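I have been asked to look over a protein record a colleague put together. Thanks in advance; the entry in question is below.
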Amino acid sequence: MRNLVLTAGLVAAVAISMPGAAQTGAAVVEKAPGAVGAAQTVKVTATITAINSATREVTLKGPQGREVTLFAGPQIKNFAQMKVGDQVTAEYTEALTLELKKGGGKAVGVTEQTGAMGAKPGERPAGTAGRQVKIVADVVDVNPSTQTLTLRGPKETVELKVRDPEQFKLVAKGDQVEATYTQALAIAVDPVKPAGK
């Protein structure tokens, strides 16, 4: 989903240009025998300071006073609903899980699912998008001296260092590893609140 990747890149650009109070986030890492997962969420809030309807450019300002101008392409529905002073909130989540499949048996390959939903006509601009990619790879070598696994996937062969000795002991040549990568993005524009409230 090209738009999700581009929008996520814009969220990252805004997050980098507006540090501190402009963003919040959380990271989680969990593990179980033969499985490990990590997830991270970043939430960015900014205020619209300028809108150029002719070029569809929107200027956002973070709490630190830094500004960034972004192009709101035609996929942004209800563009005319945005007003100077509105708050734009973007929340981006990434997650990766690796799961050991003892003895193999699954077809080596890649599957991808995507989805998106936007605001209905007349509503405030908002939208969500998601993408999930699953890769199944064969364990073709296990090297105890370097704690590395050699994994052969559908397009390439990679070496993976396993830093947890207990997890490494569970893996044998002929097993498989299933990796699942998930991205999700939600963006909302909230109207400016009247002064004094």
User: Anything to note?
Assistant: Residues 2-190 form one domain. The mean pLDDT is 84. The CA atoms of residues 115 and 130 lie 5 Å apart. DSSP finds two helices and ten strands in the chain.
